Amino acid sequence: MTLVSRVASAGVDDWPRAEAALRCTLSFASCYIYAPRGEGLLSAGARLLCRRVKEGEPKWLPRYAGQVAELCARERLFAQLFARDAWLVPVPGCRPRDTQSTAAGQLAVALHGLGLARGVWPGLARQVPVRKSATALRGERPTVRQHYESFSVREAPRGLFHRLILVDDVITRGRTLLAAATRLRVKFTHADVRAFALVRTLGFLSRADRLLAPCTGVVYWAGGDARRQP
Description:
Elements: H1 3-9, H2 15-21, E1 26-34, H3 41-54, H4 61-75, E2 87-90, H5 103-113, E3 119-120, E4 124-126, H6 144-150, E5 151-153, E6 163-171, H7 175-187, E7 192-201, E8 212-222, E9 225-229
């Protein structure tokens, strides 16, 4: 049985509804950069940082979250993203499991502990696994639709839906975040859904000149795929 047919059999195959929600851009922010093929010491440092983040190392994730909080307090960065009444929603990993045990879940807990949101709501779950993008060939990476159809939304507490901030460890093209945001928007049509990824991938960068490079941008749907800017 294929991924799509397995999800359809679970009763969550509602892609036609998602296509309308995909017309809305997704605002996102990130803090660090990662150049997977970059040369030099800084590029090597970026790869080390990315590995620490992906592995959810308890020694390092709170430090990186602290940098985000410091940027918010000292330089007023991400002021349009984090809010006292916002709920952080960790993006699940590729396989069904406890969302808060993932790097994204641990990062969300750390950000909440620093006062950047009202709470953490593990409202998204994987119903079926998807291929891990980092180890897949370019043409075999999960599509936005495959991500979307693999997600389900848990029942939420009353009064949750003013602002939901998706939290992920790394953003590359933005397919996972766009699919997750669309799944939430289909369920909660009046929610303000945004996203934060600690690290953003710059695959074209040959040599990094810094690790800390905070930015805000958008992920949008164009030509049947996700696009990220910047």
